[in-house]
Amino acid sequence: MTETLDRTITVAVAGNPNSGKTTIFNALTGARQHVGNYPGVTVEWKEGTVSRGDWRLKLYDLPGTYSLTAFSDEELVARDFLLNHKPDVVLDVVDASNLERNLFLTTELLEIGLPVVVVLNMSDVAADNGLRIDANLLARRLGVPVVPAVGNRGRGLDDVIAAVTRVAISGTSLPGPADICREAGPATEALVQVATPGGAWRVDYGPVIEPFLARVCALLPGEDAARWRAVKLLERDPAVLEEIHDPEVRREILRIADEFAAAGLEEAPDTVLASRRYAFISRLCDGVLKQVRRNGPTISDRIDRWTMHPVWGVPIFLALMYGVFTLTFGLGNPIMDLIDRGFTALGGLINGFWPAGSESPLRSLLVDGVIGGVGGVIVFLPNIVLLFLAIAILEGTGYMARAAFVMDRFMSKVGLHGKSFIPLLIGFGCTVPAIMATRTLESRRDRLITIMVLPLMSCGARLPIYALMIPAFFPARWHGPVLWIIYVTGIVLALVGARLLRATLFKGENTPFVMELPPYRMPTPHSLLVQMWTRAWLYLKKAGTVILGAAVILWFLTFYPKPPSDYVVPAGFDRTAIGSETHFGDLTDPAQIQSAELSYSIAGRVGRVLETVLRPVGFDWRIGTALVGAVAAKEVFVAQMGIVFSVGEVDETSEVLRTRLRERYSPLVGFCIMLFTLISTPCIATFAITRQETGSIRWALAQNFGLTLLAWIVTFIVFHGGLLLGLGGA
Ligand code: GDP
Ligand code: MG
User: How far is the CA of 148 from the centre of ligand 1 (A)?
Assistant: First the structure.
């Protein structure tokens, strides 16, 4: 038995989703990880330390997994950590109220031969449900320490540390009984018992499967966890198969797997193996798990009768979502106004350092670029924070899992997963947090499809564009319907797009909807605040980095170069009829000067170049220039239009701008502008987050080009269709 060389013990905290891993990790290390009732919250592992006497325990909080068959990115993270980082101890957090199901992972861990300590967490819930668990007997049967605990109240955690230290000291994956009993102090003696002499721990797969396992095992001499690997190989687990480097051996193994599949099993190999394992667990639990009291339906069951009702489930969900949106906007808007006024005041203050009408680039950079750009984004902070508070509450109480379940039937029809629904919904607020929310999706394929179509859900930043355009071109009674058409167009395109992606690029079977429905719980205010703060901070960080950078670059593009005074202003650069011989130096109206400057700037020139591409969809260089601005953030489009049309402050004079738009464009073009900004290139922040979340710039580029191309095609069809129907062009 090797003594651990240094005094640091690495401990991997593993277990099913929602078993309380993060709670225990936080209680032990004092860290503030997000605790949630919804799978997918812990995506990467987090580390923290705790010191006890001479020992330093280094804990890693892994994502939840039901088994070591890696279906999702999260499960892969957990499995990779357990297999390759070789932790000194695996702290297997088990939900005692759902013991048999949770032991599935435990038996896999033991099969690998990892040094395990089982925590029977949620002992309080188990007791409330009338279950009694004989931890000593379970420990003897498993051959590892089993420690009852109530994580959220910190009960049993000292015993957990004691057991972990002891297993680490004994330094074996399967501590012999003598070792453990000698090492166990009086406090844990009762909990730490081992019976299997020699500790040869194995799941018995029965007479049909065992010979196949033996044959595969024979091909893996001296390998770690040969038996576990053999099981996975019979399941044709691609990751495990990849680790077999000898092509000869690999071929032989595949032959055995084929033979196994053809051996007259009643079901698919992985199902058979899983059911053997469950049968084994059921024997293991015999006498360990007792139902001492029959319970009536729990409160959770009673709530679920409504929320999961085949008819009422969907309306209840929609009503709740409606409540969430009205609340976030109702409460958020007054605060937004305050922030807005704050930034306006700040802009005024900075303006005050320069004489009125100053041409100073620094002034313009600070006021128009930095404050205008970053301020325009920070203004949405209250909405974002409130939306995430609402989502944190829905998640923390356990409702979100139900919502995904209720929506799955509909979503699977369009090739999306039930869990895609929440991100799509968040997309109406802002695409960036929505893309982050796709982390809850198990399959990478589902996740990528959702990310790709997400920008089509019309986000809040597009609303100012519609608010400008619709009243400019349509009579009042049309306002609502036109807005509705725009939103619905986005939704329909997203659903059709998802369906197409699923049928082409992301072909394959649907991931089954497997999701634990955790009992309803009261989320703690602390965890809600932590989550809210994390999101707010992420958003602020984005505003301070990506958006700030983009705003500065964009400002530069619209500010430079400055036209010389003999620059001949192009005819019709402005709505006023200025002759083609007009020189820039002769202009006096500040609004005209600004407009002429913009037409001379890089952005203006880009707009002109874009015009050749945009002509077929009915757009001129002005719209092109404004579209360049929309790349930084969609709402910049409105400000840019204001500048191109020489309307100083847009907010106060949007009526003037509307009049000028009406003079120049037909309602058909107005509609096409909205359509194009809805579908085309998502903003720069979306690009950044897509890159980050998909882990590759390729997907972000594909999303950008794909959507812009789609925008062009759709707008082209609508524009020319409209012309044919005699709806008038530009
Ligand atoms: P994880 O997914 O395994 O990280 O689970 P979390 O740590 O996020 O916990 C899920 C929920 O269970 C949270 O609401 C916790 O407050 C709650 N919880 C954790 N441990 C216990 C426990 O022992 N008893 C009860 N009643 N609730 C617990
Ligand atoms: Mg967690």
Answer: 14
Let me know whether 223 and 367 are in one domain.
no
User: Residue by residue, what is the 3-state secondary structure of 84-151?
Assistant: HCCCCEEEEEEEHHHHHHHHHHHHHHHHHCCCEEEEEECHHHHHHCCEEECHHHHHHHHCCCEEECEH
- The residue among 476 and 103 whose pLDDT is bigger is 103
Examine residue 59 and state whether it is found in any structural domain, yes or no: yes
Q: Check residue 529 and give its pLDDT.
A: 83
CATH number at residue 220: 1.10.287.1770
Tell me the ligand closest to 14's alpha carbon: 1
User: Within a 10 A sphere around the Cβ of 393, how many other Cβ atoms?
Assistant: 16
What would the two tokens of residue 343 be? 């930034």
Confidence of residue 230 (pLDDT cuts 50, 70, 90): very high
Q: What's the CA-to-centroid distance between 518 and ligand 1, angstroms?
A: 10
Nearest CA-CA partner of 418 in 436, 398, 438: 438
DSSP 8-state symbol, 577: -
Contact 418, 512 (CB under 8 A): no
On whether both 193 and 217 belong to a single domain, the answer is: no
Same domain, 156 and 189: yes
Per-residue pLDDT tens digits for 645-671: 765 554 545 677 788 888 889 999 999
The pLDDT value recorded for residue 394 is 83
State in Å: Cα 13 to ligand 2 middle.
10
Nearest ligand by distance to the CA of 43: 2
With tokens 């729990």, the residue in question is 298
Are residues 322 and 459 located together in one domain of the fold? Answer: yes
Q: Residue 370 domain-assigned?
A: yes
Q: Are residues 389 and 448 in the same domain?
A: yes
Q: What is the b/e burial string over 424-452, where b = at least 16 CB atoms within 10 angstroms of the residue's CB?
A: bbbbbbbbbbbbbbbbbbbbbbbbbbbbb
**Hunting for tokens 């905290």 — which residue is that?**
13
* Full-model pTM: 0.58
Let me know if residue 597 belongs to a domain. Answer: no
Task: From 256, 291, 326, give the residue that closes a domain.
Answer: 291
Q: What share of the chain is helix, strand, coil (3-state, %, to 5)?
A: 65, 5, 30
Ligand 1 centre distance from Cα of residue 226 (Å): 34
Mutate to test the pocket of ligand 1, among 60, 150, 152, 528 (most ligand atoms within 8 A of CB): 152
Segments forming the whole domain that contains residue 125: 8-199
Whose CA is closest to atom 12 on ligand 1? 20
Residue 155 lies in a domain: yes
Does one domain contain both 403 and 539? Answer: yes
Q: Is 155 in the pocket of ligand 1 (CB under 6 A)?
A: no
Which of ligand 1's atoms lies nearest the C-alpha of 19? 3
Q: Is 373 in the pocket of ligand 1 (CB under 6 A)?
A: no
Helix 381-397 and helix 525-542, axial crossing angle in degrees, nearest 10? 140
The number of the ligand 1 atom at minimal distance from the alpha carbon of 123 is 23
- Is residue 691 within 6 Å of ligand 1 at its C-beta? no
Looking up residue 83, the CATH number of its domain turns out to be 3.40.50.300
Range from 342-356, 442-456, 681-695, 710-724 that averages highest in pLDDT: 710-724
Domain's final residue, options 257, 291, 325 = 291
How far apart are the CA of 23 and the centre of ligand 1, in A?
6
Report which of 469, 465, 485 is spatially closest to residue 630, judged by C-alpha positions: 465
- Is any ligand 1 atom within 6 A of the Cβ of residue 10? no
Give 18 Cα–ligand 2 centroid separation in angstroms: 7
* CB of 420 shorter than 6 A to ligand 1: no
Q: How many domains does the chain contain in total?
A: 3
The protein residue whose alpha carbon is closest to atom 22 in ligand 1 is 122
Find out whether the beta carbon of 20 lies less than 6 Å from any atom of ligand 1: yes
61: β partners? 13, 46
Q: Is the CB of 121 under 6 A from ligand 1?
A: yes
Q: Are residues 467 and 542 in the same domain?
A: yes
Angle at 696 between CA 626 and CA 494, to 5 degrees: 55
